[in-house]
Amino acid sequence: MDAARDPDIIVLYNSIRENPQYLEVPNEMKFVETPLHIAAFEGRTTLALEILRLKPTLGKKLNFDGHTPLDLALCNGHPTTMKRLVRQDPDLIRVPGRGGITPLHYAAKTDENIDLLIDFFSYAPPQLRT
How far, in Å, CA of 79 to CA of 43, rounded? Predict the structure, then answer.
């Protein structure tokens, strides 16, 4: 219930009340800046989780720079947001962004990301764990 009192969540639902299409993005639009991209970029974890819960397809959309919301959380120093998004939708680690790079590729790239890789695999779909 704490999330219901979160100012970000209240603003989100007020925005939806004013414009019921607020989170709607046509499926054919591959590149779009969504409220989920903004929340992930800013590390607003509770808001990002609520948006992803309401509209799971937004987690797989690329912004105009070719980044997913998970990419933005990852590259802007918001590990809590990133981990919670992955926990809510483990398939996000395999969504290719700019250059075809997935968050899983990014985590596997260097030894300094070993904790990230462990987190990804702990929430990964079963087919990735075998």
Answer: 8
Distance CA 20, CA 10 (A): 15
- pLDDT of 66-113, one tens digit each? 999 999 998 898 989 999 999 999 999 989 999 999 888 887 876 667
Range of the domain at 10: 2-129
**Domain count within the chain:** 1
Report in angstroms the alpha-carbon separations of 98 from 94, 95, 101, 102: 13, 10, 6, 8
Give the position of tokens 């989920």.
Answer: 36
C-alpha distances (whole Å) from 4 to each of 52, 89, 94, 129 are 15, 21, 30, 35
Burial (Cβ within 10 Å: 0-12, 13-18, ≥19) of residue 6: middle
Among 48-57, 71-80, 90-99, 119-128, the range with the most confident prediction by mean pLDDT is 48-57
CATH number at residue 27: 1.25.40.20
